[in-house]
Write a structure and sequence with these properties.
Layout: E1 5-12, E2 15-22, H1 27-44, H2 51-56, H3 58-68, E3 69-70, E4 73-74, H4 79-87, H5 97-118
Antiparallel strand pairs: 1-2, 3-4
Helix pairs in contact: 1-3, 1-4, 3-4
Function: The zeta subunit may be involved in regulating the coat assembly and, hence, the rate of biosynthetic protein transport due to its association-dissociation properties with the coatomer complex.
Protein name: Coatomer subunit zeta
Subunit structure: Oligomeric complex that consists of at least the alpha, beta, beta', gamma, delta, epsilon and zeta subunits.
């Protein structure tokens, strides 16, 4: 507990991973989220989890985080499933990972632009 929050942490080499939740949250769920996230990051970075590799692959780490939690709701805690979703193996007819990321970014930008025109 720190300042009314439950904080679960894990250190891997020179990286520090933290998951925080309110004082009413279950510590085991938070620990499960942290374990799944760190497992997925380890799989995607091929067990070379250090600061330099993490910075070079920050997009993958953010996508892992997006697959784990959405708006404070836990979506997935299995590291293998998270890594598979992020790497794109589960997508049918998808291009490379970079192309997916760019196309997703363009689709999001297109949606925001369309919304701004409709206002």
């Amino acid at each position: 507990m720190f300042d009314g929050y439950i904080i679960v942490y894990k250190f891997i080499q020179d990286l520090h991973f933290f998951v925080t939740g309110g004082d009413e949250e279950n510590e085991l769920i938070l620990a499960s989220v942290l374990q799944g996230f760190s497992d997925a990051v380890g799989i995607l970075l091929r067990n070379s989890v250090d600061k330099r590799t993490a910075l070079e692959n920050l997009d993958l780490i953010f996508l892992c985080l997006d697959e784990v939690v959405d708006g404070g709701i836990v979506l997935e805690t299995d590291g293998n499933v998270i890594a598979e979703k992020v790497s794109g193996h589960g997508l049918e007819g998808a291009g490379s990972f970079t192309e997916q990321t760019i196309s997703q970014a363009l689709a999001t930008a297109r949606e925001h632009f369309a919304r701004s025109l409709l206002k």
